[in-house]
Specification:
Elements (H helix, E strand, L loop, with lengths): L1 H5 L9 H12 L4 H18 L4 H15 L3 H7 L3 H12 L8 H13 L7 H23 L4 H4 L3 H19 L6 H10 L1 H10 L4 H18 L5 H20 L11 H26 L5 H5 L15
Helix pairs in contact: 3-4, 3-6, 4-7, 6-8, 7-10, 8-10, 8-11, 8-12, 10-13, 11-13, 12-14, 13-15
Length: about 300
C-alpha cells in the first residue's frame, strides 16, 4: 500500500523519503490530476450538502480550495477538470451556495478568479472571469433598475442577496492579476451606478453600506495601477460621487440619544466606514498621475500628484 511504503502517519509527511514517494506517485505515475479531481469533488460536496457546517465550509474555502490555485501549472490542470467546471457553475448559478457566510463567499470567489491564471492566454482568462461573474453583476444591475427598488430592497431575502453578491465582488476584486485585470475592471465599471443607487437606498443599513464601501476599496486598490488617464478620471469621479452621497445622507451619524451600549456599537460601525473611506482615498492618491491628464488642464498648470508635498 502507498501509505505503508511512504511511512505516512496522521495525514502528515514524516520524512524526506515520504515526500519523495509522494512526488514519484504524483509525477511519474501521473496521479496528480486524479487527486486534484478527488479534492475538488469532496470540496463541492462539503459546500453543497452540509449547509449548516460553518467550520467545514470555511476550511474548504479558506484552506483546501485556496491552496490549489497558488501555482499556475496546477490551475492549468484544474481548469481541465469537469469537477472544477461544476464548482464554477454552482458558484455562478446554484442558490444553495448563497447560504455560505460572507467570508466564505469572498474566499470562494477569490479562488475561482485566481484559477483563471491557468488559461493559455489573457483573452481566455478574462473571458473566464466575465462568465464567472456575469450573474453577480447582472443581479445588482437588475435590482438597482427596479422601479420599486425602495420597497423591494428592504426585504430580508433581498438584503441577504445584496450582501452575498457584494462579498463575491469583493473576492473577485481582491484576486486582480495582470491577466484578469481587464475583466475585473469592466466588472466594477458595470456596477458603478448600481453601487451609488444602493448606497442611497440602504443608508440606514450599516452592514450593507460597509460592504458597498469595502467592495469599492478593494476594486480601486486592484485597478488603480493599471488604468490609463481617462480611465482613472472615471474612477475618481465615481469615488467622488460615492463620497458625496455618503456625506449628503449623513450616513454613519451617531445619535446622542442612544444608550451607552448602542452608542458604542454605533461608533464602532461608523469607524469601520471611516477606515474604509480613508483606505479608498489612500488608494486613489497612490496613483502616479498628473492633474492635466485627468482634468484637461494646460501644461503650465500641471502638478505631479506623486511629487506633491501635501
Amino acid at each position: 500500500m502507498l501509505v505503508e511504503d511512504c511511512n505516512l502517519g496522521s495525514n502528515q509527511l514524516q520524512s524526506l523519503p515520504s515526500r519523495a514517494c509522494l512526488f514519484t506517485f504524483f509525477n511519474e505515475h501521473n496521479q496528480g490530476k486524479f487527486v486534484l479531481d478527488i479534492i475538488v469533488r469532496i470540496s463541492l460536496t462539503s459546500l453543497m450538502s452540509y449547509p449548516g457546517e460553518k467550520d467545514l465550509q470555511e476550511l474548504t474555502c479558506h484552506q483546501l480550495l485556496h491552496a490549489l490555485v497558488r501555482r499556475r501549472n496546477i490551475c492549468f490542470h484544474l481548469l481541465s477538470l469537469d469537477s472544477w467546471r461544476n464548482l464554477a457553475n454552482a458558484f455562478a448559478n446554484d442558490k444553495s451556495l448563497f447560504l455560505l457566510n460572507g467570508v466564505s463567499q469572498r474566499s470562494l470567489a477569490q479562488t475561482l478568479v485566481l484559477s483563471a491564471y491557468g488559461m493559455r492566454s489573457s483573452d481566455a482568462s478574462n473571458q473566464y472571469v466575465k462568465d464567472l461573474m456575469a450573474h453577480m453583476t447582472s443581479s445588482l444591475v437588475d435590482l438597482a433598475n427596479n422601479s420599486d427598488l425602495k420597497n423591494l430592497a428592504q426585504q430580508p431575502d433581498i438584503i441577504m442577496l445584496v450582501c452575498c453578491v457584494l462579498e463575491r465582488l469583493r473576492g473577485a476584486a481582491s484576486a486582480t492579476e495582470p491577466r484578469t485585470q481587464r475583466a475585473i475592471y469592466e466588472m466594477g465599471l458595470s456596477v458603478m451606478n448600481p453601487v451609488l443607487r444602493l448606497l442611497e437606498v440602504y443608508k440606514h443599513e450599516s452592514a450593507v453600506i460597509y460592504l458597498l464601501l469595502k467592495f469599492v476599496v478593494d476594486w480601486v486598490d486592484g485597478q488603480i495601477s493599471y488604468l490609463e488617464a481617462h480611465e482613472t478620471a472615471g474612477v475618481v469621479n465615481f469615488c467622488m460621487s460615492l463620497l458625496q452621497i455618503y456625506s449628503s445622507h449623513n450616513i454613519g451619524k451617531i445619535s446622542l440619544s442612544l444608550s451607552s451600549t448602542l452608542l458604542n456599537e454605533a461608533k464602532t460601525e461608523k469607524y469601520k466606514d471611516l477606515r474604509a473611506l480613508l483606505q479608498l482615498l489612500s488608494h486613489l492618491c497612490s496613483k502616479d498621475m498628473k492633474i492635466p491628464e485627468i482634468y484637461g488642464l494646460g501644461e503650465a498648470d500641471s502638478v505631479g500628484l506623486a511629487d506633491s508635498d501635501n
